[in-house]
Amino acid sequence: MMTDYTLIFELIGTVAFAISGASVGLRSRSDLFGVLALGIVTATGGGVIRDLVLGVIPPSGFTDPIYVITAAVSSAIVFAVAYLKSRHPSNLNVENWKQLLLVMDSIGLGIFTVVGVHSAISKYGTGNGFLCVFSGLVTGVGGGLLRDMMVDRLPDIFRKHVYAVASIIGAEVCLILCRLNLASFSIAAGAAVIVVVRVLAAHFQWNLPRIEQ
Questions:
Q1: Which of 27, 69, 87, 174 lies 20 to 30 Å from 93 when distance is taken between CA atoms?
Q2: What superkingdom heads the lineage (predicted)?
Q3: Alpha carbon distance 159, 163 (integer Å)
Q4: Which DSSP symbol is given to 58?
Q5: What are phi and psi of 2, to 5 degrees?
Q6: pTM reported for the whole predicted model
Q7: Predicted pLDDT at 1
Q8: Is the C-alpha dihedral spanning 12, 171, 5, 201 positive or negative?
Q9: Cβ(81)–Cβ(51) under 8 Å?
């Protein structure tokens, strides 16, 4: 039951991150292949890095095609919608599009972070808290990090609305609940915390201190 529950969350996260990655491809004026590649990398890159860290070889992204297929289809739909919208520029609502991207990116970050925590727990238990939280963090931000590097921009985790911090907070919540034998509740709770923190940070413009040049 827990495996099916996790798979559903993973697929939701895959769709959300694929939409986010494909949208970055559109903004960088990539062609169809570029949009698909960015969507797939964003949706699967974090999981691949996580599996390498945890010693799962080959990574699940290469052994189970459902994630790549889901990401590719989601990215293709984004491209098709954007193409049709480009024929009717008056129908484009940039602000609504930005809000959609924020929500999709937040959902993907939340789900993949807690899935990463559970991946570490299933292999090594809850004793090594640092490994569990790091696994969640790298699963949540790894795909976006690779995506931003591919389009030659400073990754969001280094500049935007406590992005990585939100992932760490949610990972800690997930881990604590698992240690309290509330594993079935930990995925939804951890992901929800991350989404709320991200949305609030974006709305109120919360950012970590930095030196302005």
A1: 69
A2: Bacteria
A3: 8
A4: S
A5: -65, -35
A6: 0.90
A7: 42
A8: negative
A9: no
